[in-house]
Specification:
By secondary structure, this protein is of the alpha+beta class. About 45% of the residues lie in helices and about 15% in strands.
Length: about 100
């Protein structure tokens, strides 16, 4: 089982790796799926799931503030419910 990403850098690593093969709308749920954390999600209770989504969304917002992601204006229903969606727009510091 993979560990939940703890930093914006870890989230960015997941995004950059996945974007090599196709373009995604990034949500907290997508980060969990692409980061190999699906089992961690499955085993969590409702309160922990809410906290996981909140933490990952905050990391995505951090990447948006750095100009690496762009926030979509509408909520996305492609992950675990209605979530904030982001597009990968920059490879700034993608090697880190």
């Amino acid at each position: 089982m993979s560990e939940l990403p703890q930093t914006a850098r870890e989230v960015k690593t997941i995004i950059v790796k996945a974007e090599r093969s196709r373009k995604y709308v990034w949500t907290a749920g997508r980060v969990l799926i692409e980061g190999g954390c699906a089992q961690l999600w499955k085993d969590a209770d409702a309160r922990d799931k809410k906290e996981m989504l909140k933490r990952i969304t905050a990391l995505l917002e951090n990447l948006a503030s750095e100009g690496i992601l762009a926030r979509r204006p509408l909520l996305q229903g492609i992950g675990y419910g209605q979530e904030k969606g982001f597009d990968f727009i920059s490879t700034i510091q993608s090697s880190s």
